[in-house]
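Reminder to self: tokens first, then the designed residues, so the page reads top to bottom the way the pipeline ran.
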């Protein structure tokens, strides 16, 4: 019973870290990646469709992304969707494809990215702490229902705290690595 609670807690905390890593992909670092466009949806015959499902999205070099739609009539829809997304660049439509030219990041932009990234890290820590609270509540309920002893409850909560500490440390490590990556010129 307690082992199930431990496993569920670890699964939830791993999910929080995975979510944080995925949100980091939307941040701009020194080299542009196509993930900055992941959240953009294009109106494809009345259905909001992810950009990478209506054309090919390629990072042609460190500062340029090219979007080539599979249907030429989508060029204007893609252009307006990118403009609405406010990703920091204006789309350039040449009639065949859309090019996004990202200027090199300034020190201020890098620091702003680090600030956003740390906020995402804090959100992940809050999520991990919520997972801890939920697991501890389950343990306390077992104790209240006389399914485990008070000593078992105390040691189980200590184990949950050790699991929590492990994942908080992992989040801090990931944040530190990502910060170095962003600030590296």
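Designed residues (185 positions):
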């Amino acid at each position: 019973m307690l082992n199930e609670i431990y496993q569920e807690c670890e699964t939830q905390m791993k999910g929080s870290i995975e979510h944080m890593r995925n949100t980091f992909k939307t941040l701009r670092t020194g080299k542009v990646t196509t993930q900055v466009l992941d959240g953009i949806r294009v109106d494809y015959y009345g259905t909001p469709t992810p950009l990478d499902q209506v054309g090919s999205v390629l990072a042609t070099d460190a500062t340029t992304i090219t979007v080539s739609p599979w249907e030429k009539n989508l060029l204007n829809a893609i252009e307006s969707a990118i403009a609405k997304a406010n990703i920091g660049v204006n789309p350039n439509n040449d009639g065949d494809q859309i090019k996004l030219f990202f200027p090199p990041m300034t020190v201020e932009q890098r620091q702003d990215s680090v600030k956003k990234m740390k906020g995402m890290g804090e959100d992940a820590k809050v999520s991990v702490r919520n997972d801890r609270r939920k697991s501890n509540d389950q343990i306390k309920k077992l104790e209240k229902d006389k399914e485990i002893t008070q000593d078992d409850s105390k040691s189980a909560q200590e184990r949950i705290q050790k699991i929590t500490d492990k994942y908080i440390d992992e989040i801090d490590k990931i944040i530190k690595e990502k910060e170095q990556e962003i600030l590296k010129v």
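The helical segments are 2-24, 75-85, 107-144, 150-183.
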